[in-house]
């Protein structure tokens, strides 16, 4: 059965390059993608370069395990250290935020807790899935974003994908 999935992408090491590589790989694996804006934010939990983050929507017939394995492969191809600390610099971080309206703890937690904890996840998700409901809270993402404490500094940046072949 085809599921709508939402994926969080983040990088703070050669971030534009790694986001582009991730989008190319995700498009090759899942076909048509729905893209949020790209947001820049300060590193959370450690000192480091600013992060670029976005959320991507796609459809898949793959299982949760297959989707996660695909993400790990894309991360590894982009130099992601397998046992990276939670609050540390990274070339690429891909997280499955939702898989349809699935609620589970295994093989991963769905929906991801980060949806309501981090502006750099919720704002871009609200941008591309405004009226979709959070599977546990039963509120749409736009409402969740409107009610969110916007203390974290976050701003949209210019980012073009796919790259314009004339440039």
Automatic annotation (TrEMBL):
Per the UniProt record, which EC number(s) apply here? 2.7.6.3
Write down the top EC class of this protein.
Answer: transferase
| Gene Ontology terms describing biological process | folic acid biosynthetic process
Question: Could you state a single Gene Ontology molecular function term?
Answer: ATP binding
Transferase recorded as keyword? yes
Q: Output the InterPro entries linked to this UniProt entry.
A: Hppk, Hppk_sf
Which Pfam families does the protein's record reference?
A: HPPK
Pathway annotation from the record? Cofactor biosynthesis; tetrahydrofolate biosynthesis; 2-amino-4-hydroxy-6-hydroxymethyl-7,8-dihydropteridine diphosphate from 7,8-dihydroneopterin triphosphate: step 4/4
Lineage: superkingdom: Bacteria
Pinpoint the 7,8-dihydro-6-hydroxymethylpterin-pyrophosphokinase domain residues: 6-129
Keywords associated with the record: ATP-binding, Folate biosynthesis, Kinase, Nucleotide-binding, Transferase
Which NCBIfam families has this protein been placed in?
folK
Q: Which PANTHER family match?
A: 2-AMINO-4-HYDROXY-6-HYDROXYMETHYLDIHYDROPTERIDINE PYROPHOSPHOKINASE
Q: Kindly provide the name given to this protein in its UniProt entry.
A: 2-amino-4-hydroxy-6-hydroxymethyldihydropteridine diphosphokinase
Q: Please tell me the species this chain comes from.
A: Paraferrimonas haliotis
Q: What is the lineage of its organism?
A: Bacteria, Pseudomonadati, Pseudomonadota, Gammaproteobacteria, Alteromonadales
């Amino acid at each position: 059965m085809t599921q709508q999935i939402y994926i969080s992408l983040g990088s703070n090491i050669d971030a534009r390059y790694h986001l582009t590589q991730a989008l190319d790989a995700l498009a090759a694996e899942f076909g048509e993608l729905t893209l949020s804006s790209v947001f820049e934010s300060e590193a959370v939990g450690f000192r480091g370069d600013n992060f670029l983050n976005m959320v991507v929507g796609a459809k898949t017939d793959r299982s949760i395990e297959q989707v996660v394995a695909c993400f790990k492969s894309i991360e590894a191809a982009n130099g992601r250290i397998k046992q990276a600390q939670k609050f540390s610099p990274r070339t690429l971080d891909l997280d499955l935020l939702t898989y349809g309206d699935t609620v589970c703890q295994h093989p991963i937690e769905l929906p991801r807790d980060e949806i309501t904890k981090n502006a750099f996840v919720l704002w871009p998700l609200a941008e591309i899935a405004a009226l979709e409901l959070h599977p546990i809270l039963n509120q749409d993402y736009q409402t969740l974003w409107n009610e969110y404490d916007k203390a974290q500094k976050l701003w949209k940046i210019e980012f073009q994908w796919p790259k314009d072949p004339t440039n």
